[in-house]
Amino acid sequence: MSAKIKNKVLVYEGSNYLRYRLLLSTLSGKPVKITNIRTKNDDPGLKEYEISFIRLLDKMTNGTKIELNETGTSIYYNPGLLHGGELEHDCSLQRGIGYYLEAIMILAPFCKSRIDLKLRGVTNNTIDPSVDRIQTAGIPILKKFLTGDNEVILDIRKRGVVPLGGGEIQFKCPINRNLKTIQLEDSGMVKRIRGTACSIRVSPAIANRIVESAKSVLLKFLPDVYIYADHCKRSISGKSPGFGVTLTAETTKEVFFSGQAFSPLMTTGSLPCVPEDLGKEAAIKLLDEIYRNGCIDSAFQSMTAAFMALGKKDVCKVVIGPLTPAMIQFLRDLRDFFGVSFKIEQIKEEEDATLSQQNEEDLPYEEEILRNPYSVKHWQRYIDHLKSTNSKNLNVVYERALKELPGSYKLWYNYLRQRVSQLKGRCIIDPLYEDVNNAFERALVFMHKMPRIWMDYCTLMTEECYITRTRQVFDRSLRALPITQHHRIWPLYIHFLKKHNVYETAVRVFRRYLKLAPEDTEEYIEYLISIERLDEAAVKLAQIVNQDDFVSKHGKSNHQLWNELCDLISKNPSKIKSLNVDAIIRGGLRRYTDQLGPLWNSLADYYARDIYEEAIQTVTTVRDFTQVFDAYAQFEELSLKKLIEEAARNPTEEDDIKLELRLARLEHLMERRLLLLNSVLLRQNPHNVAEWHKRVKLYEGQPHEIINTYTEAVQTVQPQLAVGKLYTLWVAFGKFYEENGQIEDARVVFEKATHVPYTKVDDLASVWCEWAEMEIRHGNCKEALKLMHRATTMPARKVAYHDETETVQMRLYKSLKVWSMYADLEESFGTFKTCKAVYDKIIDLKIATPQIIINYGLFLEENNYFEEAFRWPNVYDIWNTYLTKFLKRYGGTKLERTRDLFEQCLEYCPPKYAKALYLLYAKLEEEHGLARHAMSVYERATNAVLPEERFDMFNIYIKKAADIYGVPKTRQIYEKAIEVLNDDNTREICLRFAEMETKLGEVDRARAIYAHCSQICDPRVTSNFWQIWKEFEVRHGNEDTMREMLRIKRSVQAMYNTQVNMMSAQMLNNASNQISDVTLDAMRLLDSKITSNADNAADVKGVIKFVRGVTEKDGKSESHVNNPDEINIDIDDENDNDVEIEEGTTIYLQIASKLSYLIYKYI
């Protein structure tokens, strides 16, 4: 029945398919209402298992709204968000766990987090799919749709049957919201059958009876049948008795079919359930499922349809068996919830072509062969046609082709491969094998130089297990082929030899092979060892060890080969007779001094204790020491055990003494193991600080040895070569004296420690700090302050902290660690002034961190110096760090709080530090706030920053406004910038503003901007501006606009000329009144010189004149051809209207220009 929609709610009637409708509602997020649930039954409303399922959905989701009426016959379900996670649920015993798990498998990939679900209840019943069926047939379908990490786990921890249950499973599935599109159109052939027969609280023999009964049916169809008998005991056996079986068939295309049968609930008067009947029932159900065909088990058709509907938009094809009623209704419900429709087609088997049709199709090819009997192309075309039709005449046509073309490698190769493929599945004694061998022999008559033919023939003969014939074929191939192709035959030959126990033949063949490929000697040695021919193997191994140019194919070094030789010799002393064992091993000891352990052990197997004692005092690596020591201890234990056994047979007094001596020797060896190991490590690297500390611990309780060890350590370890922190040895040495009450000796140690040339300043700082802490522990606070004062005293000459050419003692005065402790001590034991002086010194040295500044502020606040506790510029780093961390932590989640912080920070922020904070504030608004807020912040920033930073800020403001609101929005910003910025920046802004208006097509606006900007552009200084305006008018103007531009230019030039004259006169007047003060300043001296020169020039030549409107040249005019069509733009008028200066006034104008420039620079 289709759904009705009321107020955007899908409404269904009846209890059928309630589970899947709630499932689809959860996936789609659409609310659903189901009414008339069993209203006509004696027990109306929801069943217990349905209520349990609804509770499970509520656990998996967040925000689900469920409404039931009083009788339980109507339910309203509004799903929440799937969140998954770790869940536990007790399922109703009326239905199996499979009832719940079928739905959970569909929901699991779409949860917010990886689901880890534990279900308890009935694992096997007669109604629902068992957990075994879901595990073997359902999980593979789920994995086919998942991408990436598709590790789905279904763990059956306990089994339980009706009526009491007691089963438990755990289901884990990764989140995977992007499902794959699959194409399952071929189910393949069944290749194996597996199953699980379980017996719960009954005799194990019942499971065996089920297995035998099921196999009696299935073995008639397939030999590969294996059914596991799972007998549940004790805690995993559930609470009720029962038994059953689940069978699964796997095909060659990894398609799984399943069948199950379980014992029903036994009631009064019911017939007993026979195990044999259950086994046959399950086998018949499995065969029926296979007969249904398709690529999906019928129990999981709905899950497949759901994943197909929820996957990508690509076409997904799946062949399934006959549709179940549940599947048909599920498809209808999918259409209601998701609007998805499925195209269902029935597959029709193609009828095989009749023999007569095949013969008719062969006729064209036969005619071509008759016309071209010697054409390989035509024969191959005919053969390809026969292959496509699976014709039985394929071999006959090949033989016909080879009779005509016996020298064709292509035909022979394809024919032989075809014949070999026909041998699959046949016994090696089948006569067809001999026929194929004969075909190879016939081919080799013509193809004896073709290595591929020989390789296929040898491979086939190896499978047939004819040893002599196969060896002869290999020898023939090696004789027939050139030496350059032998490398293709020998691997097959060696494989054949290893496959059969023909040792003498194999050794002889290997010797031949090594003449061609000596690099494979290791393979020969391994074979000799495997057949227990150890003496020859040792001789061969010794030969390659002594060859300096030998390169191992397995990547083994010469040393590894030495170890193998020594192991082989030492473990088989009676079988190695052709080598001098002692000379070989001792030669390795002299040669490989860094890896002596295995070699000493090998030699010790011959000579025992003396060699062990020599080795333990010689090795220099831990691995060698461990191997030698373990072997030595094992040797002592075995010798002691053997002596005890001998004493037990014939006890004497001397035996007791020997036993005590051997036991004391073993105990002494074990007691000094750690010291010996430590000695090895220190011999290996005497500058290892950690090992010196370990050595001190080994001498615990021996003060004299500890002092000697510390003394030796600090004298041995060099700071430049130390592994670890050298200062820890000095500190530990001083603390040792302190713990034993020798404070003066501890001070002596610390004093010496402060003069050690450490590699890092921090090491020396740690020594001073530890010394001060020791003084504090003993109540010498003043002495601690004196130590810190000594440590922080500046050296005679100032050095850089990171200059490693200077000693650490010279650079200690800038150590933050020492200053931090000094400040802490002053806060605790000093005065306010001394502590404040320390903090000020830290700031002066520029080594203060934000934490130091905060501590300083808190200290001042505690002492009521509030005005110094939190002031600019010291708080800039604090605000900057705090705001950056705050934004990184919360982003836009606490937007109002972040805005309050920025407003509080910027309230008293000096302009010098405002730019970075305003940019950070604006970035916050852009990423998490509103665009208009960001623009407001940028606008405030243009007023708050330094004057020299306003131009950059306006540029940022303009760019952001253009990105957010578009280019037209920037007009107001340009206008404000022109009003606020200085002349140079205003000129650049005007040019960009005019360029923008030009791009927008607003030519008149751009011309007005150029006119406005021209008032601050002196043509003699800013010629670039006038050139740009001129180019603009050429492109977009006319003759009138060009004349207007030139007119403005002349007026501006005249204005600047007037200003220069006025400034010059004023400068001359000032210079004449203050001539006596010229020597006070270099600038005044220069001004006075320029002024006097200008006066002289003015006296000589007179006054400035302007050029007339028409230029005359001695009454002569040049001839000019007039073009009536010419447009007179009057571009050169600016040159004709320049100011003409008489000869006597030129110097004066130059002086005046220099004066105006000097005045401008001075201002």
From TrEMBL:
<keyword id="KW-0508">mRNA splicing</keyword>
<comment type="similarity">
    <text>Belongs to the crooked-neck family.</text>
</comment>
<dbReference type="InterPro" id="IPR037136">
    <property type="entry name" value="RNA3'_phos_cyclase_dom_sf"/>
</dbReference>
<keyword id="KW-0539">Nucleus</keyword>
<dbReference type="GO" id="GO:0071007">
    <property type="term" value="C:U2-type catalytic step 2 spliceosome"/>
</dbReference>
<dbReference type="InterPro" id="IPR016443">
    <property type="entry name" value="RNA3'_term_phos_cyc_type_2"/>
</dbReference>
<feature type="domain" description="Pre-mRNA-splicing factor Syf1/CRNKL1-like C-terminal HAT-repeats">
    <location>
        <begin position="719"/>
        <end position="1083"/>
    </location>
</feature>
<keyword id="KW-0507">mRNA processing</keyword>
<dbReference type="InterPro" id="IPR023797">
    <property type="entry name" value="RNA3'_phos_cyclase_dom"/>
</dbReference>
<dbReference type="GO" id="GO:0003824">
    <property type="term" value="F:catalytic activity"/>
</dbReference>
<dbReference type="InterPro" id="IPR003107">
    <property type="entry name" value="HAT"/>
</dbReference>
<feature type="domain" description="Pre-mRNA-splicing factor SYF1 central HAT repeats">
    <location>
        <begin position="522"/>
        <end position="717"/>
    </location>
</feature>
<dbReference type="InterPro" id="IPR011990">
    <property type="entry name" value="TPR-like_helical_dom_sf"/>
</dbReference>
<dbReference type="InterPro" id="IPR055430">
    <property type="entry name" value="HAT_Syf1_CNRKL1_C"/>
</dbReference>
<dbReference type="InterPro" id="IPR055433">
    <property type="entry name" value="HAT_Syf1-like_N"/>
</dbReference>
<dbReference type="GO" id="GO:0000349">
    <property type="term" value="P:generation of catalytic spliceosome for first transesterification step"/>
</dbReference>
<keyword id="KW-0677">Repeat</keyword>
<dbReference type="Pfam" id="PF23233">
    <property type="entry name" value="HAT_Syf1_CNRKL1_N"/>
</dbReference>
<protein>
    <submittedName>
        <fullName>SYF1 factor</fullName>
    </submittedName>
</protein>
<dbReference type="GO" id="GO:0005730">
    <property type="term" value="C:nucleolus"/>
</dbReference>
<dbReference type="InterPro" id="IPR013792">
    <property type="entry name" value="RNA3'P_cycl/enolpyr_Trfase_a/b"/>
</dbReference>
<dbReference type="Pfam" id="PF05189">
    <property type="entry name" value="RTC_insert"/>
</dbReference>
<feature type="domain" description="RNA 3'-terminal phosphate cyclase insert">
    <location>
        <begin position="186"/>
        <end position="290"/>
    </location>
</feature>
<dbReference type="GO" id="GO:0071014">
    <property type="term" value="C:post-mRNA release spliceosomal complex"/>
</dbReference>
<dbReference type="InterPro" id="IPR020719">
    <property type="entry name" value="RNA3'_term_phos_cycl-like_CS"/>
</dbReference>
<dbReference type="InterPro" id="IPR056350">
    <property type="entry name" value="HAT_Syf1_central"/>
</dbReference>
<dbReference type="InterPro" id="IPR045075">
    <property type="entry name" value="Syf1-like"/>
</dbReference>
<dbReference type="InterPro" id="IPR036553">
    <property type="entry name" value="RPTC_insert"/>
</dbReference>
<dbReference type="GO" id="GO:0042254">
    <property type="term" value="P:ribosome biogenesis"/>
</dbReference>
<dbReference type="Pfam" id="PF23220">
    <property type="entry name" value="HAT_Syf1_M"/>
</dbReference>
<feature type="domain" description="RNA 3'-terminal phosphate cyclase">
    <location>
        <begin position="12"/>
        <end position="344"/>
    </location>
</feature>
<dbReference type="GO" id="GO:0000974">
    <property type="term" value="C:Prp19 complex"/>
</dbReference>
<dbReference type="InterPro" id="IPR013791">
    <property type="entry name" value="RNA3'-term_phos_cycl_insert"/>
</dbReference>
<dbReference type="Pfam" id="PF01137">
    <property type="entry name" value="RTC"/>
</dbReference>
<dbReference type="Pfam" id="PF23231">
    <property type="entry name" value="HAT_Syf1_CNRKL1_C"/>
</dbReference>
<feature type="domain" description="Pre-mRNA-splicing factor Syf1-like N-terminal HAT-repeats">
    <location>
        <begin position="361"/>
        <end position="519"/>
    </location>
</feature>
<keyword id="KW-0747">Spliceosome</keyword>
